[in-house]
């Protein structure tokens, strides 16, 4: 018996998949046939997707909201599309792009149009991802040039740091004992010593 499955993906556990779930319901995908992954689309090593592909049989239909829900890597999306439609002989419906519905236009022209649209959309999805990374890198570089510091905020030195440092300099305290008295790690204490212009 032919089955209709819905594949839903959000990039993080904080993102809400409800919009995709509603679209699947409206299409007629049974709740038990909806598969959700809360994972990045950078590759296809996703547990839900892998289980779903194993279930799919010839003439089943796979529904996705948009092409980037399937994946974000141009070459990988094209390879998965080929695997599903050619090898597993599954139909794919992309709700946001009616041209990407392999149930329609099974003739040569229909297949050609579908392939062209798919390649274009996959390319756009990957290019947008690369632009985002580029903008992030440029933003970080610009912020660093303005003197913005990234990473964990440096720990403030306790009020008695200078006294304990002096004791360490005089040899009456070991570095480990000094760090314990200051309530910091040995590494942090030695880092502070290294940052001081006049160590002792």
Explain what this protein looks like in three dimensions.
Keywords: DNA integration, DNA recombination, DNA-binding. Residues 3-147 form the Resolvase/invertase-type recombinase catalytic domain. The active site is at 11 (o-(5'-phospho-dna)-serine intermediate). This is Recombinase family protein. InterPro entries: Recombinase_CS, Resolv_N, Resolvase-like_N_sf, SSR_resolvase. There is one protein chain. This protein is an alpha/beta fold and 200 residues long. The protein has two domains: 4-131, Resolvase, N-terminal catalytic domain (Rossmann fold, 3-Layer(aba) Sandwich); 161-195. The protein is built from eight helices and four strands, in the order E-H-E-H-E-H-H-E-H-H-H-H. Strands 2-1-3-4 form a four-stranded parallel beta sheet, with helices on both faces. Helix 1 links the parallel strand 1 and strand 2 (34-38). Helix 4 packs antiparallel against helix 5 and helix 7 (175-182) crosses helix 8.
How are the elements arranged and paired?
Layout: E1 4-10, H1 18-27, E2 34-38, H2 47-55, E3 61-64, H3 67-70, H4 74-87, E4 91-94, H5 108-145, H6 161-170, H7 175-182, H8 186-195
Parallel strand pairs: 1-2, 1-3, 3-4
Helix pairs in contact: 4-5, 6-7, 7-8
What can be said about this structure in brief?
Residues 3-147 form the Resolvase/invertase-type recombinase catalytic domain. The chain has helices at residues 18-27, 47-55, 67-70, 74-87, 108-145, 161-170, 175-182, 186-195; strands spanning 4-10, 34-38, 61-64, 91-94.
């Amino acid at each position: 018996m032919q089955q209709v499955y819905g594949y839903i993906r959000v990039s993080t556990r904080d993102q809400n998949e409800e919009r995709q779930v509603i679209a699947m319901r409206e299409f007629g995908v049974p709740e038990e046939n909806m598969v959700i992954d809360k994972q990045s689309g950078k590759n296809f090593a996703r547990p839900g997707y892998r289980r779903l592909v194993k279930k799919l049989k010839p003439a089943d239909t796979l529904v996705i909201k948009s092409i980037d829900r399937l994946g974000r890597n141009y070459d990988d999306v094209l390879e998965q599309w080929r695997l599903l439609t050619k090898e597993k002989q599954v139909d794919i419906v992309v709700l946001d792009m009616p041209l990407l519905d392999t149930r329609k236009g099974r003739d040569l022209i229909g297949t050609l149009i579908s392939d062209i649209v798919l390649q274009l959309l996959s390319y756009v999805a990957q290019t947008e991802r690369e632009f985002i990374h580029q903008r992030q890198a440029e933003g970080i570089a610009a912020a660093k040039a303005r003197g913005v510091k990234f990473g964990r905020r440096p720990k403030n030195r306790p009020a008695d740091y200078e006294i304990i440092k002096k004791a360490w300099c005089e040899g009456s305290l070991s570095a480990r004992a000094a760090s314990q008295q200051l309530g910091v790690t040995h590494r942090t204490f030695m880092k502070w010593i290294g940052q001081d212009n006049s160590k002792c």
